[in-house]
Amino acid sequence: MQTIDFVQWLFLIFFIYGLTFFAMGMAMALESGRRLALADSRVLRPLAAFGLIHGTHEWFESYLLQAQAIGTPLIALTPWIRLFLLFTSFTCLFFFAYNLLLLASSHPIQRLRQLVGVLALYIFLFLGSAFLTYRTGTVPWTDLLDGLGRYLLAAPASLLAALALRARGRQSHAEDRPALEKHFRLAALGFGIYSLTQFFVHPLAMFPASFINEGSFIAVTGFPIQIVRTLMALVITYSLLRATNAVEEERNLQLFAVQQARLQALQQRDELRRDLLRHTVQAQEDERARVARELHDETAQILSAATLHLAALRVSLKRKPDALAIVEQLQGLTRQMSHSLYRLVHDLRPAHLDDLGLIPAMNYLLAEMRSTKELEIDLKVEGVPHRLDLSIETILFRVTQEAISNIIRHANARRARVQLFFAADHVHLTVADEGQGFDAQGPFHAPRGWGLEGMRERVESAGGTFILKSAIGQGTQLDATIPL
Question: pTM for the full model?
Answer without folding.
Answer: 0.60
